[in-house]
Design brief:
Elements: H1 24-44, H2 46-53, H3 58-74, H4 76-87, H5 89-110, H6 118-149, H7 156-187, E1 189-190, E2 193-194, H8 196-216, H9 230-247, H10 268-284, H11 288-294, H12 308-339, H13 346-371, E3 386-389, E4 403-405, H14 436-442, E5 444-446, E6 452-454, E7 457-461, E8 464-468, E9 471-473, E10 478-486, E11 489-498, H15 509-532, H16 539-564, H17 568-591, H18 601-604, H19 615-629
Helix pairs in contact: 1-6, 1-7, 1-8, 2-3, 3-6, 3-16, 4-5, 4-6, 4-16, 5-6, 5-8, 6-16, 7-8, 7-12, 7-15, 10-16, 11-16, 11-17, 12-15, 13-15, 13-17, 15-16
Region (Disordered): 610-644
Keywords: Membrane, Peptide transport, Protein transport, Symport, Transmembrane, Transmembrane helix, Transport
Main location: membrane
Length: 644
């Protein structure tokens, strides 16, 4: 049973079906499911909303989309500081959830055509997105940490499994929202067009439900009160330690750690807690590289041969595999590894997860190499005036828009023939191509099957306009189309330079399996590790630090992808190699990491102002406490160097 806390009702001791899981976590899991449905449902149609409703171009829409996504992973720091220093986790979740709901409502109102002009729509949309970013980012570190707080300190196994269940709820919400929200936008019509107001309104309703469910469990929660301005004390302590270390002379007594230079003013417990947090944050430095690879499965991994169902399925494949793999790993894989007497510590799991992600990109490289095999289109022996390169990319934002045909028009002066209709206005053939209308006629987004027949393509030259039949343009093929004068106007002659691609989409499944297995071992473990290694008054802060690794992973993608200028398969291979190198560095750092049990701090520091104890005596006392506690502590080997 739970210990009696002043002000806590007896219902706190309630457990789920005779287990050691508190009833309160059911409210937290349902809250997270609804919140993730709300977030991912809104994002599923966000880019299409920018392009089709606000009439922004593709570049601006993509830039705003990624800026919003990045903001959602930087704002957790603010939410964590509010929770740990001022309001506490419970009230922070409630207040920022209200901000979250307001953001959704404003976003939905901005999608109603009758509300103001385009400037008003843009202003409301941006205000709504900013509020959503602060809402979702602010509660991210608090909800996970608050869920971990509900468990008694001896129920570490149940707490670890809770984080797995928590992660499954995230992906369940993602799967359903990815299916439902685009349907609401496309199949339901309102205000004379696609119903973006409804597509944004449903996520708002789900967020209201999430808030109501969370508040409903109020009487069952353990609510740890905030412990004052922790951030201010931490910054001042670090500042004093740096100042004293800088001013020290060779005659001053030596310190075992640079933070010990602050012990003249600050209690040893605070100094010890700061050491714990800094050790974990340093360990996080290599981790963004994993997220740099992981996030590309929704952008660069789409092989463009999908029909509508396949496009939708592959967008959901990662989340579906998560729902399958989490119980398999918890019930089968990890117990089997334990039976083999392999000590699979949390940091070892994370390292294995990084290796699996690197292997996934190795598999993606093999697929990409086979997909993109092409003879050179610059072969001087190839006579062509118009080169049509057909590339199909399914939209990652809307499963209903999945076909993009790009046509690049090139005129070769070396093969200029007066009997062949010129696509230029003057005699300087290599200088100006005036086939824009032809180009734009084939640059389109549509919902036709991939193997689509283009039977009526508008082609103009000056004042003369003709409609030509290009026939079938299939994915992966390279066509040469020569336009000649005929008795009935422009007559196209199409030649197939490269036959259509026949790589089956199922070749992508192994890389999705590998990346998802890596995510299970890396992400879920990291979430629980961040909680277990943080002192009670800094758990939200360390959760925010974990989420920051995701934000910086996106930055790495932008730097490498924009700066490298490599072919796609080479870029995949580069990312895989970088992750392997980072994994080696992380493994070395993890080898020297010392696991701690924050719950033991109360035993080690009965008085917060205690001083005079050196690190050796602290470690000795800590080891004795852990040995007495037996299996009730998360990691008994807290003070010895472990092999990760």
């Amino acid at each position: 049973t739970l210990p009696k806390f002043p002000g806590f009702p007896e219902i706190l001791a309630a457990k789920l079906c005779g287990t050691n899981y508190p009833v309160s976590i059911s409210f937290i899991v349902v809250n997270e499911f609804c919140e993730r449905f709300s977030y991912y449902g809104m994002k599923a149609v966000l880019t299409l909303y920018f392009i089709n409703y606000l009439h922004w171009d593709q570049n601006l829409s993509t830039a705003v989309y990624h800026a919003f996504s990045s903001l959602c992973y930087f704002t957790p720091v603010l939410g964590a500081l509010i929770a740990d220093s001022w309001l506490g986790k419970f009230r922070t979740i409630i207040y920022l959830s209200v901000v979250y709901v307001l953001g959704h409502i404003i976003k939905s109102v901005g999608a109603i055509p009758s509300v103001g002009n385009s400037t008003v729509h843009i202003a409301l949309s941006m205000l709504g997105l900013v509020l959503i970013a602060f809402g979702t980012g602010g509660i991210k570190p608090c909800v996970a940490a608050f869920g971990g707080d509900q468990f008694d300190e001896e129920h570490t196994i149940e707490r670890r499994k809770f984080f797995s269940i928590f992660y499954m709820s995230i992906n369940a919400g993602s799967v359903l929202s990815t299916v439902i929200t685009p349907i609401l936008r496309g199949d339901v019509k309102c205000f004379g067009g696609d119903c973006y107001a409804l597509a944004f309104g449903v996520p708002a309703i789900l967020m209201v439900i999430a808030l109501v469910v969370f508040i409903s469990g109020s009487g069952m929660y353990k609510k740890s009160p905030p412990e004052g301005n922790v951030l201010s004390d931490v910054c001042k302590c670090i500042g004093l330690a740096i100042k004293n270390r800088w001013r020290s002379s060779e005659f001053d007594s030596k310190k075992k750690h640079w933070l010990d230079w602050a012990e003249e003013k600050y209690p040893r417990r605070l100094i010890h807690e700061i050491k714990m947090v800094l050790r974990v944050l340093v360990l996080y430095i290599p981790l963004p590289m994993f997220w740099a690879l992981f996030d590309q499965q929704l952008t660069l991994w789409f092989v463009s041969v999908f029909d509508l169902f396949s496009s939708l399925l592959f967008q959901m494949l990662n989340a579906l595999l998560i729902l399958l793999f989490v119980p398999i790993f918890d019930v089968v894989v990890y117990p089997l590894i334990g039976l083999c007497r392999i000590n699979l510590t949390p940091l070892k799991k994370m390292a294995v997860g990084m290796i699996l992600a690197a292997l996934a990109f190795g598999a993606a490289t093999l697929v990409e190499v086979n997909v993109m095999v092409r003879p050179s289109i610059y072969d001087p022996n190839v006579r062509s005036l118009v080169e049509v390169n057909v590339m199909v990319r399914p939209s990652i934002y809307d499963p209903n828009v999945r076909l993009l045909v790009e046509v690049n028009v090139m005129v070769r002066p070396s093969i200029y023939d007066p009997n062949v209709r010129s696509l230029v206005e003057d005699e300087v053939v290599a200088q100006t191509v005036s086939a824009d209308n032809f180009h734009h006629a084939l640059t389109k987004s549509c919902t036709h099957p991939i193997s689509h027949r283009y039977t009526k393509v508008r082609c103009s030259s000056g004042s003369q306009v003709s409609f030509i039949n290009l026939g079938l343009l299939d994915f992966g093929a390279s066509y040469t189309i020569i336009l000649t004068n005929g008795s009935v106007g422009i007559v196209p002659k199409k030649m197939v330079d490269v036959v259509a691609n026949n790589i089956h989409i199922t070749w992508q499944i192994p890389q999705y399996i590998l990346i998802t297995a890596g995510e299970v071992m890396f992400s879920i473990t990291g979430l629980e590790f961040s909680y277990s290694q943080a002192p009670a008054n800094m758990k939200s802060v360390l959760q925010a630090g974990w989420l920051l690794t995701v934000a910086f992973g996106n930055v790495i993608v932008l730097i490498v992808a924009e700066g490298a200028g490599l072919n796609q398969w080479m870029e995949f291979l580069l990312f895989a190699g970088l992750l392997v190198a980072v994994c080696i560095i992380f493994s070395i750092m993890a080898y020297f990491y010392k696991y701690v049990d924050p719950e033991e701090l109360d035993k080690l520091f009965q008085d917060k102002t205690v001083d005079g104890e050196d690190d050796d005596s602290l470690k000795k006392d800590k080891k004795e406490h852990m040995e007495q506690a037996g299996d009730s502590t998360y990691l008994k080997s807290g003070i010895k160097n472990t092999a990760m």
